[in-house]
């Protein structure tokens, strides 16, 4: 099939490269000449495990090309995948301007019938509106079908998620579109759930909101657990072994961040409000998430008294490991709070080398970071932190206080290390 993918962010690029690896002819189009030039010259505008290899192979097979000429990409394809951004507006709603701009262009420039596939995360009803826009402003008497095909890729494991999805959701209203989507995904090892467009769009928001809900629930339980003197890890294991609950996404910590969960939950609440359905449950999920960094701040204060004049080291700045993405990263909320309280902040992250808050000094490794610090907070659970030399860490610290904001270290192990090196170790909910 001739396919174009419009938008070369992490969803568009991984999808384009993956479909090319599955032997489709793919044109990746983006208005950013900088991104396209990077891709044409063999570079990558984003880092994702395994992406470089599959792109190289697809290029060698001449299965993929890159262009800023979106009109030409549209005209050359039967299937057009839209994977442009839908950022949050001030009221939490999704900004759909990029989707509708591409829609107008497709309507204007198409000279043959097209199937337009929405990969971007959009509020329920967007696909229907896009279909109306396309067919009403069609210039050459062509017909359009719109398919909602939401994406469940996780940053950091997007390539393997692409090839081994848990399910594929397809919302469409014609047999022709259904057949085209069956053809597109014919060699994928999972079921395809066909449904109407609005249900498909809702599934995406509902899935991300449910994941966020699991995290906030665990964070609430972690706070209770501390008061009770219980261990949140035991609670996690005990409830997670019930298959009706499931053991994934039950890790308490500093809260969820990233470019998807916080944005999608707000947009889903807005969808509810627009239909007079108050999504108060999700409001609580967000509230718990906002307050989660306070837990660490309070622990710090209980040891240090005041944070004024204290030096605090942060380990890990990105919203999760294996990415340099800082969008809605919990580190930002935490650091703001520390600075407001008068602390000096030093930080290290394996991939983040530029930070939006100038007051934060970045260092090239954990050991120089912690020099003369009163406390160290582990904010992102990078694997490399698991093999730290605690002796060197402790000798560099002014006060050996370690706060583990992701429960990334074994409690028993840390108790031993604490005894050996005379340090204080605190984690979340245990
Ligand atoms: C999320 C979803 O997991 C994907 O399925 C979805 O496709 C994607 O959003 C999207 O809509 O594009 P992602 O944002 O890459 O993926 O990150 P997650 O792995 O979901 O993590 C989100 C946040 O939750 C991170 O800050 C992480 O630290 C936090 N988290 C995750 C917890 O605090 N506890 C957990 O148990 C799991």
From TrEMBL:
Family affiliation: Belongs to the UDP-glucose/GDP-mannose dehydrogenase family.
One BP term from GO: UDP-glucuronate biosynthetic process
Protein name per UniProt: UDP-glucose 6-dehydrogenase
Keyword Ligase: no
Active site, UniProt feature: 260
NCBIfam families per UniProt: NDP-sugDHase (TIGR03026)
Catalysed reactions, semicolon-separated: UDP-alpha-D-glucose + 2 NAD(+) + H2O = UDP-alpha-D-glucuronate + 2 NADH + 3 H(+)
Highest taxon, organism lineage: Bacteria
SUPFAM superfamilies documented for this protein: 6-phosphogluconate dehydrogenase C-terminal domain-like (SSF48179), NAD(P)-binding Rossmann-fold domains (SSF51735), UDP-glucose/GDP-mannose dehydrogenase C-terminal domain (SSF52413)
All residue ranges annotated as the UDP-glucose/GDP-mannose dehydrogenase C-terminal domain in the record: 313-411
Binding residues for substrate: 204, 249-253, 257, 320
Keyword terms of this UniProt record: NAD, Oxidoreductase
